[in-house]
Design brief:
Layout: H1 8-22, E1 26-27, H2 52-62, H3 68-79, H4 87-100, E2 102-108, E3 113-119, E4 133-134
Parallel strand pairs: 1-4
Antiparallel strand pairs: 2-3
Length: 135
């Protein structure tokens, strides 16, 4: 019998990875990731948990009519440092952004003013439009 057959990796992680892959998620291993320019996930450090360029791409796809400034506002809202907040409050705040979207201000060229739009972070009606990645 394989000496490593009863590891957490074999009993939990690998079956979970297969399950997510079977559901259509993209799966990647970052165990040997080289950080910096051209890295597998586009990260400079392992501490970067939000893949900003992947997030930007998804937000642009889900909100094609909104300008780059609105997309950046949403990225800033999603990646804001919440370390000083109680964990439950930070989780509630992020959950609300994911569920309800992010209110952004965009130029209203017809009126020469600003209008308010709701930027979607998740496509709840068509889940296949979302970007699912397990690392």
């Amino acid at each position: 019998m394989n000496a490593h057959a009863y590891t957490e990796d074999q009993l939990v992680e690998q079956p979970a990875i297969r399950l997510f892959a079977d559901m259509g998620w993209q799966t990647l291993s970052a165990m040997d990731e080289t950080l910096g320019a051209g890295s597998l996930l586009g990260r400079e450090t392992r501490g970067e948990v939000v893949l900003v360029e992947r997030l930007r791409s998804a937000l642009c796809r889900l909100n094609a009519s909104l300008p780059p400034e609105a997309i950046q506002t949403a990225i800033d809202a999603l990646t804001r440092d919440r370390s000083a907040m109680p964990l439950a409050a930070a989780n509630r705040e992020l959950y609300a952004l994911l569920k309800e979207g992010i209110t952004v201000s965009v130029p209203d060229n017809a009126q020469g003013e600003q209008s308010t739009e709701r930027l979607r972070v998740v496509d709840w009606e068509c889940p296949e439009n979302n970007d699912f990645l397990l690392v």
